[in-house]
Amino acid sequence: MKPPMKALKIIIVLTMFLAIGEGLMRFDQAYKPFTDEKAVVAIEAKIVESEIYRGILQGTYKPKEDVFKIMVLGDSFVHGGGINYQEALASNLKNILTTGVDTCGEIEVLDLSRPGHNTADNFNIYRAFKDFFKPNIVVLGYVLRDVLGPMIIFDTGSTNFKLNDGRVGNLNTPEKINKDIGIYRIINPIRRNSRLFKFVNTNVQRLLKINGIVIPYFGSLHHIVNSAYTEDSKNWLASKDILTSLRNETNSDSGHLVVYYIPEMNVLEHASLYSKPDKEIDRFFRSLKGISYINGYTDDFRDNPENDQYYISKFDAHPNELAHRMIAQSIADTIRSSWKCET
Amino acid sequence: MILSASIDFFVAKQIYNSVQLKTKRIILAISVIANLSILGFFKYFNFFIESTATFLLALGFQPNTYTLNILLPVGISFYTFQSISYSIDVYRGHIHPTKHYLTFIAYVSFFPQLVAGPIERAKNLLPQFSRKRIFSKHEFMAGFYQALWGLFKKVVIADNCAPHVDAIFANHGSLDSGTLILGTLLFSFQIYADFSGYSDIAIGIARMLGFNLITNFKYPYFSRDIAEFWRRWHISLSTWFRDYVYIPLGGSKVSKTLAVRNTLVIFTLSGLWHGANFTFIIWGILNACFFIPLLLRGSNRRYTTTVVAEDSILPSIKELVAVVKTFALCMVAWVFFRAESISDAIQYISRIVTTIPTFEYHAAFPILILISLFVSVEWISRRKLHPLQFVDYLSYRSIALAILVFWATFIWGNFGITEFIYFQF
Q1: Taking CA atoms, what residue in B is nearest to A38?
Q2: CA distance B110 to B108
Q3: Which of B311, B334, B335, B337 is nearest to B221 (CA)?
Q4: pTM of the model
Q5: How far is residue B29's CA from residue A144's CA, in Å, rounded to a whole number?
Q6: Contact call for residues B123 and B92 (beta carbons, < 8 A)
Q7: B210 exposed, middle or buried (CB, 10 Å; 0-12, 13-18, 19+)?
Q8: A291 and A227 in contact (C-beta within 8 Å)?
Q9: Angle between helices A275-287 and A221-228 (to 10 degrees)
Q10: Which of A99, A236, B156, B328 has a CA-to-CA distance to B109 between 20 and 30 Å?
Q11: Facing B403 at nearest CB: one of A20, A25, A33
């Protein structure tokens, strides 16, 4: 075969390769003929509203002065995504602190964690509820992705919102996307519209990630998160300001902030995957005076010989029931040793 | 493996150099006993001790059992048989012993087929290591296509059946007959797709490297009787037992009684080869029971050269009934193969007979559709070695079909951590 014909055949085969894959992918997504029993566990982000929460919204809740009150903030990692809510952090915390020899007596736990919350959301919801609940302890379960999304702060008691210092950032919509130049004018529209590309990209990255390997620059969460924890990242700068404000406000409200850094449970054995953000987060919280900080990664899970026991699925980073109990135990130990549940 | 192979390498030389038949026989016996002792030690020692203890307990004795906590070497059943066959073939004068130790070690440990076969013969594979291999695009593509089809069978068919099979066999005591039959059906396809898938991958990879391995499966579920099934299922093992056990015992060219005995012996040994468990032995005996009536009627060699519906697209009613009947017999035997114990297998089958089918296990419907498509593709390709065998592997049609299989594997494959079933043997 002559070289031009050979080149033409290669182009035709490549086109066939992509077209058949795209067609099969679209057929699969349209009819889902064989997808019932996939090994991947879909994590359900179910929201459970506690009685105290509903009581505050309805105006029937009255805070008692002599009851030890804990407010819990965080995203689905804290709220118990993928597990029974009764096995999640807030429920465990209450159980641990109200049972056993070293009991705290009567306590109330207000779980304000919600799937998808980032640092700004956690701060906003704290502000919205703090005067109604008057927490003694605010527990913040911090996760890597808390730095993502819009960092918009509501003014207390106002429906108008603006950035607390005028900065805004949203790494989910990087500016680069609007600047398709050169070969990216062809690649990026395919990348955005091809279901096959998304499927291959997601699955390959997921399989590689659980083996401690990542392909950079594919718009993966890993890439976004790693990019977000740099010194000049708008979102990380805003996050640090917000977290400092959270510390300041809890202290001035006679409360205390306990931060628990929750690691990605399915890749605990691959320390290098998030080493840069891990260090940055750890450095920041250790420098933040007046809080109690527990690094779940280094203190509880990383060197634990059973560190493959704490995830719901190897393809998802959410903590399972066992991990929630361990996290709650660590936080409860800190609360007991530092404040002895005194209001 | 090195020990086993080394014994046969030196024994074969001694056999070849010996003049007297008696000496040759003694040396061969040393080889066979040594190899089977190694196999027996790793694979059957615990089984033998536990079985004896159970027997003595039943007689009212209190035996002190001693079992070994040892790991079973991967592929021991495969390479031991491959190594033994070399010595026997030298003894019979079918081949000359190789002078090169490394060549022989390479033959025994050839990586594509080391852990799960096909069980190769020295006559076929050994000379290929000494011959100069020249890269052939056609052979490389042929091997690649076969390996791709094997991968499809493994991760799409076998591994998608596996969760249902595990669930049904684990809970068989509370399930209805419809679900239990479904479990057996799915296991039949799981083990076929798993094992033949591995064979295709092994043969395909070997072919890509310039080696030709023997065919191990020829669409066994399209067999018209159990004798044909055994000529199409795990061919390398069946022919091994035929050549080295059945024929030396007299095969079928002896009295009916001896022929029945020989059949029972090879099927029981075949069951035992799969594992140290009575379930495998019963599986072998059951197959013998299905085979012996054909032997007694003299119809066990009725289908040796043709495939079902040789000259037509669809089978005749008679052929269809014969194929379905053979498949049903296989399904019964597979229950024993898959069950944890004989009592589990008996309970499984008795529940099939005694419970009313409800067909409430809907979760397996998608995989049933997949199996139907798979069977259709295999039916269309039954005159070829595998569905991706083409005359021209670089034609657009061939490439398009291979691409289709590739993406189907990638999209619908279950890429969990399920091992090949035959790795345990």
Answers
A1: B414
A2: 6
A3: B334
A4: 0.72
A5: 67
A6: no
A7: middle
A8: no
A9: 40
A10: B156
A11: A20
For residues B409 and B156, the answer to whether their CB atoms sit within 8 Å is yes
Note whether A36 contacts B: Cβ–Cβ < 8 A.
yes
d(CA B234, CA B218): 9
Could you tell me which of A259, A264, A257, A258 has the C-alpha nearest to residue A278?
A264
| Nearest Cα residue in chain A from B164 | A37
Strands A256-261 and A137-142: parallel
> Are the Cβ atoms of B370 and A16 closer than 8 angstroms?
no
Contact at 8 Å (CB) between A138 and A126?
A: yes
Region of A106 on the Ramachandran plot (φ > 0 left; ψ -120 to 50 alpha; else beta):
beta
**pLDDT value, residue B421:** 54
Q: Which of B164, B172, B234, B274 is catalytic?
A: B274
At position B250, the amino acid (one-letter code) is G
Size of interface A-B (CB pairs under 8 A): 52
Q: How far is CA B120 from the centre of its chain?
A: 13
Encode pLDDT of B141-188 as tens digits. Answer: 999 999 999 999 999 999 888 888 888 988 888 888 889 999 999 999
Of B236, B225, B345, the C-alpha closest to B287 is B225
Which residue of B lies nearest to A207 if distances are taken between CA atoms? B415
A122: enclosing H helix or E strand: helix A119-133
Question: Contact B166/B340 with Cβ under 8 angstroms?
Answer: no
A252-311 residue pLDDT tens: 888 899 999 998 888 888 877 888 889 999 999 999 998 999 998 888 887 777 777 888
A21 with B403: Cβ contact below 8 A: yes
How long, in residues, is chain A? 343
Q: Which of B379-398 are b and which e, b meaning 16 or more Cβ less than 10 Å from the residue's Cβ? A: beeeeebbbbebeebeeeeb
How far, in Å, CA of B346 to CA of B344, rounded?
5
CA distance B152 to B378: 13
When scoring A20, A27, A194, A199 by the number of chain B Cβ atoms within 10 A, the one with the most, hence best to mutate, is A20
Could you write out the DSSP letters of every residue in B309-338? TTTSSS--HHHHHHHHHHHHHHHHHHHHHH
Q: Which bin fits B45, alpha (ψ -120 to 50), beta or left (φ > 0)?
A: alpha
User: Which residue in this structure is represented by tokens 């790793």?
Assistant: B42
Q: Which one-letter amino acid corresponds to residue B61? A: F
Tell me the nearest-neighbour CA distance from A21 into chain B, angstroms. Answer: 6
* CA dihedral sign, ordered B290, B295, B299, B304: positive
Task: Using a CB–CB cutoff of 8 Å, tell me whether B397 touches chain A.
Answer: no
Are A211 and A218 a contacting pair, CB within 8 Å?
no
Q: Which residues are within 8 A (CB) of A294 and not within 5 positions of it... i.e. 6 or more apart?
A: A258, A259, A260, A261, A300, A330, A331, A334
Q: Do A37 and B369 touch (CB under 8 A)?
A: no
Which tokens go with A153? 């702060």
Question: What ipTM score was computed for the predicted complex, to two decimals?
Answer: 0.73
